[in-house]
Amino acid sequence: LDTHTHTYTGIGTPIYMAPEICLSASKRQSKTARYGPPVDVYAFSIIMWQSMHLSLPWPNVRFMHKIHAMVVKGGRPEFRKDVAALLGFVDLMESCWHQDPLKRPTFRETLHTITEIREKHYVKSSRRHLRSKYSALSDNGPDVKVTEKKSRRDSSVDSNVSGVSTELFPV
Q1: Is the pTM of this model over 0.85?
Q2: How far is CA 120 from CA 21, 81, 88, 114, 168, in A?
Q3: I need a labelling partner for 20 at 20 to 30 A (CA). Which of 79, 128, 154, 165 fits?
Q4: Model pLDDT, residue 156
């Protein structure tokens, strides 16, 4: 599937609609308008927001046409200050919901960024945890060595300590 030429018609679930869909829906062109993968990248950004907030976006807005109007003008769900997020995750989310569909990353670029975030935050911290957890074993028995290997599925790094995998998000 060539994601650069594949297009979709119709509109989808209102809270996940990209600005270009909201705009054509407001002009009653939704059945004839054609959209590409950037509308799905936008929808993914809303899912990212939901995963951090554990709630639906726009909780105080009762009518979908009001959400559409806000989105068309550049409005996005508010990011609460009490929500914790990994470094880089919010930047990715914001780039995925960019007003201009041509400035949104592709899903390939999004996956690459998520993999980098995963490597930085999860895999490295897991290695540190395992090194400290199993360091006592090396004093009382055979050496325990933390090794890195390339996965056959992709180029992500998996850590193993005596066969104990620390891969948190298999690809």
Answers
A1: no
A2: 35, 23, 10, 10, 12
A3: 79
A4: 41
Lowest mean pLDDT among 58-62, 71-75, 115-119, 121-125: 121-125
What are the backbone angles phi and psi of residue 109, rounded to the nearest 5°? -65, -40
DSSP 105: P
Sequence letter at residue 75: G
Strand, helix or coil at 145? Answer: coil
* Residue 160 token pair: 């193993």
Report d(CA 102, CA 44) in Å as an integer: 16
Return the DSSP state at 98. Answer: -
**CA-angle at 17, arms to 74 and 24, nearest 5°:** 80
Question: Residue 47 forms beta bridges with which residues?
Answer: none
CB-side neighbour CA atoms (13 Å) of 166: 24
Classify residue 128 as exposed, middle or buried by CB count within 10 Å of its CB (0-12, 13-18, 19+).
exposed
Chain centroid to Cα 88, Å, comes to 10
What confidence tens digit (pLDDT) does each residue in 41-77 have?
Answer: 999 999 999 999 999 999 888 888 899 899 999 999 9
Residue 71 is which amino acid?
Answer: V
| Orientation angle between helical segments 89-96 and 107-118, nearest 10 degrees | 170
For residue 101, give the amino acid letter: P
